[in-house]
Structures are given as C-alpha cells and as structure tokens.
Specification:
341 residues, alpha/beta, D-Maltodextrin-Binding Protein, domain 2, six-stranded mixed beta sheet, five-stranded mixed beta sheet, 11 strands, 44% helix, binds (2S)-2-hydroxybutanedioic acid
C-alpha cells in the first residue's frame, strides 16, 4: 500500500536525522549510571502510575542498577501545559501525557478524542498499534518527541451535581476538559460550556464550583476522589482516554543502543501488562464508587445512549479537516480489521 511506504520512509528519515545530540547523554561511558526522569500528573495508584513504577523497577533490576528511571507522579515536577515543554527542552526525559494534550502540537491526535468513535478497547488497539498510530507518532518527531508506546486508561464517564441522562441535562453547565478542540466541540454540542484546566487543578475547581462537572475514567475519578465532589455519575463510556509514552528524541538517540533495547524491550512487556491492568482497574474502581454510595451512578438506557450518539456523531465530519480525511478513513478501516491469526 502506498501510504505504508510513505509513512515508513518519513519515519526512517526522521530517525536518521535527529539533529545534535544531548551532551549529557552522549558522553555516557559504558559503565556510567544513566538517570532518566519520568514526569506524570496522575496518582501512583492509577494505571499509568503503576505502569511507570513497574517499568522503572524492571529496568533497574535488569540493568543491575545502571539505568534508573526516576518517576515523579502527581504533577510534582511539571503539570499539564508544562510537561511537554519540559520534555522538549530535555529537563525530563520521559512523559506519558493523555493523547488529548498532544492535539495542540499535532492536531491529528484529536482523532482519539472523537466521541463514540471506538466501540471497545480492541478497536482502539487496532488503530494505535497500526498505521494510524505510526502516523500519529511521526507527527511528533519534528517537535523533538518520539513515541515509545501507547498505554490505555479507558473510556470516560460524565460527572456533575445533577443527573445527566438526557442530552438536555447538560444545558448551561460548565465542564472541565483537557485542552483539545474536539472536547471543546463535544461539550458545545451538548449545550454546555467547556473549561480547560490542568489535571492538578480539577479537585479544587470542583470543590469551589468553578466548574459543575467533569469527564474522566473511573480510575482517575476514584484515585483523585473527584467523585466525592459530584453527586451524579453517568456511565457513558463516550470517549477514549489513553497515553503516549514519549521521550525527548535527541536524548533518546544519544543513549547507547543496548540501553535503548533494554528500555524498549521492557516497555513492550509493561505495555501489555498496563493495558490489562487498566481495563481491570477501571472496572474495579467503578464498582468501588457504586459501593460507596456517595455518588448516584446512572447507566444510560439504549434509547438515551442513541440520543447521545446522535448529538455527538456529527463531530467526525466537523473535525475532519483538522484531523485529516485520510487518517480518519484509515482509522475507520483499521478499527474493523480482523486480527491476524
Ligand atoms: C486528565 O487530565 O484528566 C487526564 O488526562 C489525566 C491523566 O493523565 O490521566
């Protein structure tokens, strides 16, 4: 297929010409210790937090302590809006932002935010692990960032201090969103007002009623206790939330090849584990939220779900020019592809 070849060529070209190497990593001698800082914004108990720790532990063990991944959770080093720049400048070597947060530097990533685009997590995996994932990864290379893996969180739910059943229930409410144009349009279509906030500011914004509601996965709602500030939660599963594990490409290329192999080999294992754990943890955390009974959990009826879909589906067409028609078509094809046996 023509597109195959083009993407591969672009990838190879970008990899071979990665510009000047970082002095600090270039001069690593064969025995010197290598320290890689990994900054993220969520709890250590979240799927991303647990996977970051697991990767660090495995790499430390397998390198006999030579490679240390220092993990900084909970926005302790950098918060949203800061961590991308910190990676580009080489202040940290690894981040794993929600893909929605990459849409400002590369609009094609909005594809993954489209509401009701994916029916299940297998469809997501077929897309991010296929040609489309490669294309998205390529779009970050000119910005000095390289994708090493795609990690899941899961599908988002809606929360507010009012029941959200009919699409009319959103009218006039303010919802915290991640910084992505598709998410802006999603809430506008529902008659609500989107408010972009860093993850680290969500709890206080909910507490002080700066926003009325939020969308997130049950693992984020549970680990950050957002649900305790919201009377109602709707199990809408309306959009995907996942992560790109990113490195500063200049610093990455400057690492000794055997170290990169160790890191990527271990990461492949951790990614398989993370995806299973994320699925399990989101189910368990939703059960915990239901059991605590602080929040009324509502499951949409098939008719209500259809009404939500009908309002949000046109976004695909509306955002096509920004995302790229070809990419969108390829994603449509890939998500329905049967796995190779
Ligand atoms: C959010 O900002 O709501 C999430 O992306 C946080 C995360 O990294 O899961």
């Amino acid at each position: 297929m023509g597109r195959h070849v083009i993407w591969l060529l672009v990838l190879l070209l970008s990899l071979s010409g990665c510009g000047p190497r970082a002095r600090d990593f270039e001069q690593v001698s064969s025995q010197e210790k290598i320290v890689l800082k990994f900054s993220h914004v969520v709890s250590e108990a979240s799927p991303k937090g647990r996977a970051a720790r697991r990767w660090a532990e495995l790499v430390a063990r397998r390198s006999s302590g030579r490679v240390e991944i220092q993990v900084f959770p909970n926005s302790t080093l950098y918060k949203d809006g800061e961590e991308l720049e910190a990676l580009q400048k080489g202040y940290v070597q690894i981040i794993a932002p929600a893909t929605s947060k990459l849409t400002k530097v590369a609009p094609a990533w909005q594809l993954l935010d489209l509401p009701f685009f994916f029916q299940d997590i297998e469809e997501v995996h077929r897309v991010v692990d296929g040609e489309v994932g490669q294309g998205l990864a390529l779009s970050l290379l000119p910005r000095g960032m390289q994708v090493l893996a795609f990690w899941d969180n899961g599908f988002k739910l809606m929360t507010a201090n009012r029941p959200l059943q009919s699409v009319r229930d959103f009218q006039g409410l303010r919802f915290r969103i991640m910084d992505s144009p598709v998410l802006v349009q999603q809430f506008r279509r529902l008659g609500a007002e989107p408010v972009v906030l860093a993850f680290s500011d969500v709890y206080s914004a909910l507490e002080r009623h700066k926003v009325d509601g939020s969308e997130n996965t049950s693992s984020n709602l549970y680990s950050k206790k957002f649900y305790q500030l919201q009377k109602n939660l709707t199990v809408s599963n309306h959009g995907y939330l996942g992560y790109a594990v990113l490195v500063n490409s200049r610093q990455w290329q400057a690492l000794p090849v055997e170290i990169r192999k160790l890191l990527t080999g271990t990461l492949a294992e951790v990614t398989a584990w993370e995806r299973q754990e994320a699925l399990k943890q989101n189910q368990e955390d939703l059960t915990r939220i239901r059991q605590e009974k602080e929040t009324v959990v509502y499951d949409l009826s098939p008719e209500e779900l259809e009404a939500w879909k009908a309002i949000l589906h046109p976004l695909r067409q509306e955002m096509q020019a920004e995302i790229g028609k070809e990419l969108l078509q390829e994603a449509e094809r890939e998500k329905h592809k049967l796995p190779h046996r």
